[in-house]
Amino acid sequence: PLVKLLRSGESGHRVVVRRDLSSLKGKVAVVSGGGGGHEPWSSGLVGEGFLAASIQGPVFGAPPPNLIFATLKHLATFRPSGILLFAYNYTGDRLVFGIAFERAQKAGIDCELFINGDD
User: Could you report the per-residue pLDDT of 58-83, keeping only the tens digit for each?
Assistant: First the structure.
């Protein structure tokens, strides 16, 4: 399989990541996600040439910032040239992805946040 599913304890939050993360060295890792149930679109886009990881929250809720930040820290260990964090213009997603982005920057992780305003 090209992807693996990581679970965050019993919370029901899920992260789908590429199996070949070592191939990201020197390349930009693209990460996205959002609430599970209403728009878990990004899970199907994880793989070579697409997303490095997809972070899903519970049904109709954004994933927690700690889960997003943990995913960014995990990806950074594979030494990508940077991480592009891609979020939709949904208030909950903007908030939690923004918090995780700020934490990542403070931790020295080279990342940028892109908000897709196509609602």
Answer: 777 888 899 899 999 999 999 999 99
